[in-house]
């Protein structure tokens, strides 16, 4: 009697045990995707750049004014408490 007829479950388990790691390894070997094209560089003209930059400059100026006012108020409070 051949050995595989006596122990069919052992032979089947060995076959599955050899196939499963092979399938897992092959699943992990995906081909590298082709390189994607780089998007074109934005070409903003001066008018668009100024339209974006102006509100930001205005906000920075306002922030500076508010900080100066806060510093001035803090100095007045400190002077009033110290007297």
Report on this structure.
This protein is mainly α and 83 residues long. The chain has 2 domains: 1-30; 46-83. It has helices at 3-6, 8-28, 46-82. It starts with a helix and ends with a helix.
Largest sheet: none
**Number of distinct helices:** 3
H/E order of the elements?
A: HHH
Could you say which structural class the secondary elements and strand pairing correspond to? Answer: mainly alpha
Number of domains: 2
Overall geometry? elongated
What is the arithmetic mean of pLDDT? Answer: 82
Strand content: under 5%
Radius of gyration based on Cα positions: 37 Å
**Uncertain spans, ≥5 residues at pLDDT below 50?**
none
Number of strands: 0
Helix content: over 70%
Distance between the termini: 111 Å
List keywords for this structure.
83 residues; mainly alpha; 2 domains; 3 helices; elongated
In summary, what is this structure?
By secondary structure, the protein is mainly α. The chain contains 3 helices and no strands. The model has no long low-confidence stretch (mean pLDDT 82).
Tell me the layout of helices and strands.
Layout: H1 3-6, H2 8-28, H3 46-82
């Amino acid at each position: 009697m051949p050995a595989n007829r006596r122990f069919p479950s052992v032979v089947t388990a060995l076959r599955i045990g050899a196939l499963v790691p092979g399938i897992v390894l092959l699943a992990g070997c995906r081909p590298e995707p082709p390189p994607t094209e780089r998007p074109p560089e934005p070409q903003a003209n001066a008018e668009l750049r100024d339209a974006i930059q102006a509100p930001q400059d205005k906000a920075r100026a306002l922030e500076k004014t508010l900080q100066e006012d806060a510093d001035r108020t803090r100095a007045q409070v400190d002077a009033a408490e110290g007297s």
